[in-house]
Amino acid sequence: MRSILLAMLFLALAHPIASAAGPDRADRASRRALAAIRERARVAPAGTVRLYEPRIDELGAEVDLAAMRQEALVASRLAVEFGLEARSLMRERARVASRWSELMIARTLDANARRPISLEQILGLRRDGLAWTRIAVGLGLRPVQFASAVRAEARAAIGLEAPDGRVHVIGPLEPDTRVASAPVAGS
Fold it and tell me: Which of 35, 163, 167, 180 could pair covalently with 111 via S-S, beta carbons 3.0-4.6 A apart?
């Protein structure tokens, strides 16, 4: 009897109960989803990236410049766009150690993502060297609509348009559609 109890104790310690295995399964699923996003991002056409990335970088620089001048104002405008309190958004920015432009773009992608991914994972993809356009394609989003969304959020952040309290919608990338298309209006 004692040996049976010891064996059961050993098995319990060596093999966690099913409820403890749940987070491990979720973590594996998250890693698989992230790997799939990376693969789709990797095969995004270079022409598409060349078409949109410079303008996205310009818009990001404009947001960061505005934030250097009036950080609280940029934070409050973006907070309205993303449905948050300005203080919460400022704390989030400090927690994820990002520039305002990075947080704006990552939150825009996160709000439109049709795949399980966190804000931190999106920022991680960027920090790993992926272009924003590649990340959008990896998430299955249309590059032209992604660029338009970044433009709309940036214009709100820097005060060229009033924040409307909703994130610009980015449509799904259709498998039979060529990824490269016309430049964003106003760019």
Answer: 167
Which amino acid belongs to residue 130? L
How high is the pLDDT of residue 30?
82
Report, as an integer, the average pLDDT of 20-48: 85
Question: Which of these, 21, 39, 20, lies nearest to 31 by C-alpha position?
Answer: 39
Is the pLDDT reported for residue 114 higher than 50? yes
Question: Can you state the angle between helices 119-127 and 18-42, rounded to 10 degrees?
Answer: 40
What is the per-residue pLDDT across 146-181, written as a single tens digit (0 to 9) for each?
Answer: 999 999 999 999 999 999 999 999 999 876 444 444
Distances (CA, A) of 10 to 3, 4, 6, 7, 46: 10, 10, 6, 5, 54
In whole angstroms, give the CA distance from residue 150 to residue 7.
59
Burial (CB count within 10 angstroms: exposed 0-12, middle 13-18, buried 19+), residue 37: buried
The pLDDT assigned to 185 comes to 45
- Residue of 82, 52, 49, 56 lying closest to 151 (CA atoms): 56
C-alpha to C-alpha distance for 48 and 130, rounded to whole angstroms:
13
Cβ neighbours of residue 60 under 8 Å, at least 6 residues apart? 99, 101, 102, 104, 105, 150, 154
Q: Could you tell me which of 74, 70, 77 has the C-alpha nearest to residue 165?
A: 77
